[in-house]
Amino acid sequence: MTKAIYLTTTEPFSGKSIFALGLMNMLAAKTDRLAYFKPIITGNKRDKDRRLELLGKHFNLHQRYDEMYAFTRKNAFKEINKRNEAFLIDVIIEKFNSLKESADFIVVEGTDFSDVSTNVEFDGNISIAKNLGIPAAIILNCAHRTTSEIIDLAMASVNSYLSQEVQVLSLIANKVKPSKRDEILRRLKHILPKSILISAIPSHEQLSNPTMGEIMDSLGAKLLFGEQYLTNRVDQSVVGAMQLHNFLDRINDNTLVVTPGDRGDILIGSLQANISRNFGKIAGVIVSGGMHPEPSIVKLLEGLETIVPILQVDDGTFMVVTKVNEIRARIAPEDKEKIALAIRLFEEYVDEKALDDRMGSFSSEILTPRMFQYQIVKRAKSHKKHIVLPEGTDERILQAADMLLRQEVVELTLLGNREEIESMMGRLNISTDFDRINIVEPATSDRFEEYAQELYELRKAKGISLTTARDLMHDVSYYGTMMVYKGHADGMVSGAVHTTQHTIRPALQFVKTKPGVNTVSSVFFMCLPNRVSVFGDCAVVPNPTSEQLADIAISSAESALMFGIEPKVAMLSYSSGTSGAGEEVEKVRKATEIVKSRRPELKIEGPIQYDAAVDPIVGRQKLPDSEVAGQASVLIFPDLNTGNNTYKAVQRETGAIAIGPMLQGLNKPVNDLSRGCTVIDIFNTVVITAIQAQESAK
After folding, report:
1. Which residues are 170's β-sheet partners?
2. Coiled coil where (predicted)?
3. Looking at residue 117, what is its pLDDT?
4. What is the DSSP letter of 507?
5. Is-contact 406 429, C-beta < 8 A?
6. Which H helix or E strand runs over 374?
7. Distance CA 666, CA 463 (A)
8. How far lies 602's CA from each of 518, 546, 550, 634, 670, in Å?
9. Residues in Cβ contact with 643 at an 8 Å cutoff, skipping those fewer than 6 apart
10. Is the dihedral of CA 358, 359, 365, 367 positive or negative?
């Protein structure tokens, strides 16, 4: 049975996006059969509804845009004016029921209360929820309201729904003053029925204030420079109509500068202040009055390495500032920072378990990539670990670090020169608070000598001298690994710049392998369109023996289990079952027997071909009695050549996300990156390293 909930508000700009994003994110951990439905949309076929675009893109919903709504506002009110309310409701019910055929859960969003009587829309929302037969979650806009006004609004809203026999599942007091949150929660819980889940979400400046992209769209401004920084948030605006030294005194973080187009001094001063550590961040600049900067100023701007958005408008300075102050902030599909913050606020201030219980818990047997990624990020957050990133001066590392800290996934140490790292972060327009990042330069660190002495003691039997140990400790891979070994960090991720051998050699030398493990290997979590598979080994052991293959298979099965994937192990070869012979096939067959003798409870098949392992039809044809064929979740390749090329072919040809490689078998987690890794690759690898660290601590 398809489950659903109706999200409704009492007025515009109540902050539905926070609850919608958080709820969809929570549900995405359970099923990919999600649908979002807004019976009456604000936009039209040409100018799409913002929230439908946001949620459709962010959650990769399978619906077409026209399946996500029933009527535009214009068409809906045509029907109402013709007294065709019954037709309106019938079409909405029909659309809703058609979604139920392909969805496990439908989130339905009420109308937005703009350009029409609030009472009409409020009653309309009650009517739609009642006719769909689904419970409501009421979101209150508590900004600029006293506690008593909030209580009165909550009582009136809940009673209106209950009086029409619509179940109220949850009430969310949104945009409350942080200092009043506890009092508001207490009073709401006292006066409202116990069956209603009460939540209070505090106001947050980053969600309340617009971005440069929103300002550009609202003003119809022309973009001159800085397209990649349009997500910069604007917290205040300042008019640049005074002398430069007076203007600079008025710059704080996330300042929008509005200045006539002929004030080159203010324009250049703003950009210089933006890269200076002594001033706040400049969000962007608007040049007003229809004046374009002088050619010499434009030439100078074109040669700068870092530049904030510069917009041009025809309006005068005063009119621009007035219009900017009237702009309402929204969350755009490309604004990943705001999306992450909205989801984090939901997770922090809404009791997800209680909400799930009230909606009626459900789950899917399928593990989709989004479900997998949601689950591992949430798991990493549940018990934050400290991860060291030795390549602290790589741009991708810094961007990933910014994402990790904004989402509060882990604690971080970056290795490298502090001034160089801070300068690069400024150039990349990363505004993360430096106090939240531990930056260490190995050569000047307080622990340098301690680490060198430790390395000497550990390796002197191998002929290493204290001088050599000191030399090695200048190497960020050795320093970072020693942090993990000494317990000063819980795990390490490296390899964006360094080779695999450079990354893992120190770990092999003194972190060593777990008891009972003879082979260090690796796996990739391959996030395919409808499942997550584990590929091993694709990065470490070039030509494993049967014994090493067995080690890899057992370690990979344990890794799968650690991340919530039921291990069904396929030992891959160029033949299936007893159909083939030859040295390579026999190696795989022997490895399979070793695994069966060491782990008899493990579901394993081998030798088996790739298609027979993953395709149910081929699997039934070739190995009809196998409990692995056609449904393998862990695929073990016979050698590194096959594994590495296969994972890359699958990744490139299917668009799969490859998370890893994750090293297996070490006493403490140290993981390697590909030198071609993306920011998302780094983010995901840090997440799985944090989870490994959680498991190591048990």
Report:
1. 137, 197
2. none
3. 46
4. I
5. no
6. helix 369-382
7. 23
8. 19, 17, 12, 11, 26
9. 535, 536, 537, 538, 539, 637
10. negative
Q: Which tokens belong to 500?
A: 């695999």
**What is the pLDDT, as a whole number, of residue 366?**
60
Q: Which two tokens stand for residue 77?
A: 């009110």
Sequence-ordered strand ranges (E) for 589-630: 603-608
Order of strands, edge to edge, in the sheet holding 491-494? Answer: 437-440, 411-415, 386-389, 491-494, 670-672
What number of CA atoms fall less than 13 Å from residue 654's CA on the CB side?
16
Residues 589 and 606: their CA atoms lie apart, in Å, by: 6
Q: What would the two tokens of residue 580 be? A: 């083939």
Distance between start and end Cα atoms, the chain: 39
Residue 68's SS3 state is coil
Gyration radius from the chain CA atoms = 29
37, 109 contact by CB (below 8 A)? yes
| CB hemisphere CA count around 160 (13 angstroms) | 21
* 403: amino acid identity, one letter: M
Q: How far apart are CA 481 and CA 467, in angstroms?
A: 19
CA gap 693, 698 in Å, rounded: 9
The residues pairing with 34 across neighbouring beta strands, listed in sequence order, are: 105
How, if at all, do strands 411-415 and 105-109 pair?
Answer: unpaired
In Å, how far are 60, 344, 352, 370 from 26, measured between CA atoms?
A: 15, 11, 8, 11
Kindly report, residue by residue over 374-433, the tens digit of the pLDDT.
778 888 988 999 999 999 999 899 989 988 888 889 999 999 998 888 888 877 777 666
CA distance 166 to 164: 6
* Residue among 107, 110, 36 nearest 76 (CA): 110
Asked if 135 and 169 touch (Cβ cutoff 8 Å), the reply is: yes
Residue 361 C-beta-side C-alpha neighbours within 13 Å: 4
Cα 519 to the center of its chain, rounded Å: 33
Cα–Cα nearest to 229, from 195, 254, 203: 254
Both structure tokens of 507: 């770990």
Indicate the length of the chain as a whole number: 698
Assess contact for 167 and 135: CB atoms under 8 A.
Answer: yes
Q: For residue 324, what pLDDT is reported?
A: 85
Whose tokens are 């340098």? That residue is 448
Rounded CA gap, 298 and 22, in Å?
Answer: 43
SS3 276: coil
Strand 136-141 to 386-389 pairing: unpaired
- Three-class SS of 422-486: HHHHHHCCCCCCHHHEEEECHHHCCCHHHHHHHHHHHHHHHCCCHHHHHHHHCCHHHHHHHHHHC
The parts of the chain modelled with pLDDT lower than 50 are 116-118
Two tokens, residue 262: 């002929």
What is the rounded CA–CA span in Å between residue 681 and residue 661?
Answer: 10
- The reported pLDDT for the residue numbered 368 is 64
Q: Give the three-class secondary structure for 257.
A: strand
Structure tokens belonging to residue 94: 């029909």
Half-sphere exposure of 477 (CA within 13 A, CB side): 22
Rounded CA separation 564/243 (Å): 62
- Token pair, residue 300, equals 């100078």
Give the pLDDT confidence of 560-608 residue by residue, as tens digits: 998 888 999 999 998 887 766 778 899 999 999 999 999 999 999 989 9
Alpha helices (H) in 16-164, listed in sequence order: 16-28, 50-58, 73-81, 85-100, 118-132, 147-163
Joined together, the tokens standing for residue 135 give: 């419970």
The residues near 178 (Cβ < 8 Å, ≥ 6 apart) are 202, 203
Token pair 């398809």: residue: 2
Q: How far apart are CA 278 and CA 16, in angstroms?
A: 38
How large is the angle between the packed helices 264-275 and 295-302, nearest 10 degrees? 10
Work out the widest C-alpha separation in the chain, in whole angstroms. 92
